[in-house]
Amino acid sequence: MPFRLLISLGLLCALLPLHHGAPGPDGSAPDPAHYSFSLTLIDALDTLLILGNVSEFQRVVEVLQDNVDFDIDVNASVFETNIRVVGGLLSAHLLSKKAGVEVEAGWPCSGPLLRMAEEAARKLLPAFQTPTGMPYGTVNLLHGVNPGETPVTCTAGIGTFIVEFATLSSLTGDPVFEDVARVALMRLWESRSDIGLVGNHIDVLTGKWVAQDAGIGAGVDSYFEYLVKGAILLQDKKLMAMFLEYNKAIRNYTRFDDWYLWVQMYKGTVSMPVFQSLEAYWPGLQSLIGDIDNAMRTFLNYYTVWKQFGGLPEFYNIPQGYTVEKREGYPLRPELIESAMYLYRATGDPTLLELGRDAVESIEKISKVECGFATIKDLRDHKLDNRMESFFLAETVKYLYLLFDPTNFIHNNGSTFDTVITPYGECILGAGGYIFNTEAHPIDPAALHCCQRLKEEQWEVEDLMREFYSLKRNRSKFQKKTMNSGPWEPPTRPGTLLSPENHDQARERKPAKQKVPLLSCPSQPFTSKLALLGQVFLDSS
């Protein structure tokens, strides 16, 4: 069992605080705001527990409570802040007791990490104040949406909120988070083409598609992922029905010999015959809906690319069987390893362990440097870049470890569980069935039922506990509203969420025409836009 890299990574996790001498994403001097945001600490916190480093988990929780402040003048990606910060805090909150952290009375319905997650999420709510209910891509954590912010957002940046926001609503009792996430999901559903596909970028003010390339990769990927995971987490048949309809269109128009290409969303004609490394999540998603045969065939296609280069290039030209110019790098992405973990849990096929072994050996041989594991700048000659993405710690390491650790608590089959008493009654936690958000932060689905009184059960709650919880919920310290943004208001579009069965009526509704502000930067070609994905903090230039 190749634990050499995993053990060294466990030690690496003790060095999570970002080094203040490290360069910025473009090689420039670091921005101090990045460090106050403690992104890497939050993003990798639950990895510590999964790897068994309980003491470090406890230490980092204390560091976060003492140092994290979201009242900073920083332009943050709404998408990245949600999946990394909100998702990371929610996961750590729900795992705190298992990690030996002393939790406060009322947990999991209260707690410092939960309040931090709520505060971070409230900073994102101004982005959803658009005529369509689809959010802007960037928000200033101190001032809200900048007046000159571009209205063009990628599809994934609109449809990747339901897991975190529904969990937050369930734990806090505030429905606003789940409401805005559902509205955004439904507006995308209503905007699909007549052949059932969605494009890559859309104008959130007008609802018009700006980039009409349809596929399963960058800019779209986690929208499909969250329809499935949201359906499982919330037991929501409508979300699953939506995904299954998309899945039919994807198979009909984008699949060729178990590869998935990019096509024009209205015509279905091929626009880019490439495989992107981000698409490697798809076999894992297929396994969640029980489509194992198709998942394995596609996985094996992707695995051949890995064996060709010792990693997955960002873009791979399928007809030519080689990398695409300026897309030859591999930033140690987790998607293929993620799919291997899911498929191995479903099938036990040893081929999947071989991929895990190859990944460990490749990363250790090519990427290991004195201060961590470096991004591979070019897979053709294995040149390295002077950076390590936080998703390497949050996702790649975690999925590799879980692939080789069948007894990890994450894989619990329900044979063991914990019973906790909440202000709303008795609650079962830790029984398994964890739902990973798109940044690999596990959410315990049972927790969503701990902090609400179900009408059919009519739990009786003691008056003292009700009063205690009410005081906790109304603590003004953690209910700060975004400066200059005003309280959140629901979108001006009709609020009724429509199921796939009556979507035709929804298509007839057109958002009111509005003057669209000019883009704050020159329009870029589609491939250039893809290169921007993953940037967490954006400057104002």
From TrEMBL:
EC number: 3.2.1.-
Residue positions binding Ca(2+): T438
Cellular localization per UniProt: Endoplasmic reticulum
Keywords (A to Z) from UniProt: Calcium, Endoplasmic reticulum, Glycoprotein, Glycosidase, Hydrolase, Metal-binding, Signal, Unfolded protein response
Gene Ontology MF terms: calcium ion binding; mannosyl-oligosaccharide 1,2-alpha-mannosidase activity
Signal sequence residues: 1-21
Main location: endoplasmic reticulum
Pfam family, one: Glyco_hydro_47
Listed GO biological process terms: carbohydrate metabolic process; endoplasmic reticulum mannose trimming; positive regulation of retrograde protein transport, ER to cytosol; response to unfolded protein
Region annotation (Disordered) ranges: 480-519
Family of this protein: Belongs to the glycosyl hydrolase 47 family.
Protein name: alpha-1,2-Mannosidase
Species of the source: Mandrillus leucophaeus
